[in-house]
């Protein structure tokens, strides 16, 4: 795995306007992604984890510009994606592909698998039909299916097979980056492991870079080199996979991790129950947005937003418990009152 970033994201925001009344007046914003910065190195897997509504899927869509960012910079393979024209972005999508949670919903039920897999090749200008068919057969076999499956329809496959087709479709244009949005969440646990193993094998074979989005830290553990934890549109902790699982710092990460079952029950940590529901992203809590549910809440937490700061090499957290700046913040706060 290289240490050259393939993707660099700086201060990314995606705010959706809330409109009301006959004239659609904007009365507020849902801050789905709120000032997020991160990078992904070539050949690595970054897991992005959080509860539904935390902004992880929106982040994936904004990276592909399926949704336009409100603010921020996205640099992919040396290109500033946010300044590309729609036509240039369409060409660049050849290098960035997505795998979706529900492969059935993303596969056209009226098309054969062969036609579905040929489509990205047609879009990206591979006009020779023989060449396309050869590639379809080749990729069906690469993902563990057979060439004769090209003549079948999506409903003739199991959930796991359909996800293999979704992965084959993403691979058809030889992408560099694959954004996998909850790719195994809809599958049985035994099938999940098979699909994860397949994704790992393909990563090695094709030197792929992955962003792997999931709501469960257990699922991303083995596939991710680094993990970013999101809460209400912000990244609250980023670390190497090993560090994050061995020594989670943010109270939210600690709670998510305590809910992951371990093979030996003697080593199961006591589950930390997070009280309450995820707050309304249209009206997020002040200061640290996790303060309404945090068992370690301090006065400063309701007033000052903690910044993501590095605690040890590659391990950053946004929490006042770890800020050496905490005294300064309190003084700053007292000064502003
Ligand atoms: Fe909890 Fe405060 Fe840390 Fe937020 S900043 S996670 S409320 S201790």
From TrEMBL:
SUPFAM superfamilies: P-loop containing nucleoside triphosphate hydrolases
GO biological process: peptide transport; transmembrane transport
GO molecular function annotations of the record: ATP binding; ATP hydrolysis activity
A Pfam family it matches: oligo_HPY
Domain ABC transporter stretches: 7-257
The UniProt record lists the keyword Nucleotide-binding: yes
Keywords, ordered alphabetically: ATP-binding, Nucleotide-binding, Transport
Superkingdom, natural source: Bacteria
Protein family: Belongs to the ABC transporter superfamily.
NCBIfam families linked: oligo_HPY, PRK11308.1
Protein name: ABC transporter ATP-binding protein
């Amino acid at each position: 795995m290289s240490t050259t970033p393939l993707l660099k994201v700086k201060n990314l925001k995606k705010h959706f306007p809330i409109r009301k009344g006959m004239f659609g007046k904007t009365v507020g914003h849902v801050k789905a992604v709120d000032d997020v910065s991160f990078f992904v190195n070539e050949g690595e897997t970054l897991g992005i984890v959080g509860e539904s509504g935390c902004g992880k899927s929106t982040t994936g869509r904004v990276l592909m510009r399926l949704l336009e960012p409100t603010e921020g910079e996205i640099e992919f393979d040396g290109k500033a994606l946010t300044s590309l024209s729609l036509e240039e972005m369409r060409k660049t999508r050849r290098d960035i592909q997505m795998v979706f949670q529900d492969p059935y919903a993303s596969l056209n039920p009226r098309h054969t698998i062969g036609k579905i897999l040929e489509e990205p090749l047609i879009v990206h200008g591979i006009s020779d039909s023989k060449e396309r068919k050869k590639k379809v057969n080749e990729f069906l076999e690469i993902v563990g299916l057979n060439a004769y499956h090209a003549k079948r329809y999506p409903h003739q496959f199991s959930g796991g097979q359909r996800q293999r087709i979704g992965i084959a479709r993403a691979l058809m244009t030889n992408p560099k980056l694959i954004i996998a949005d909850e790719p195994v969440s809809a599958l049985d646990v035994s099938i999940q492991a098979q699909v994860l193993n397949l994704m790992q094998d393909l990563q090695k074979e094709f030197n792929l870079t992955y962003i792997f989005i999931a709501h469960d830290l257990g699922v991303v553990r083995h596939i991710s080199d680094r993990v970013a934890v999101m809460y209400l549109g912000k990244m609250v902790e980023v670390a190497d996979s090993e560090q994050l699982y061995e020594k989670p710092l943010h109270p939210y990460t600690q709670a998510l991790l305590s809910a992951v079952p371990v093979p030996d029950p003697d080593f199961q940590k006591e589950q930390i129950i997070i009280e309450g529901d995820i707050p309304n992203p249209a009206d997020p809590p002040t200061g640290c947005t996790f303060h309404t549910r945090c068992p370690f809440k301090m006065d400063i937490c309701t007033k000052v937003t903690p910044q993501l700061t590095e605690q040890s090499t590659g391990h950053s957290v946004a929490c006042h418990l770890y800020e050496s700046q905490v005294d300064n913040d309190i003084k700053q706060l007292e000064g502003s009152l």
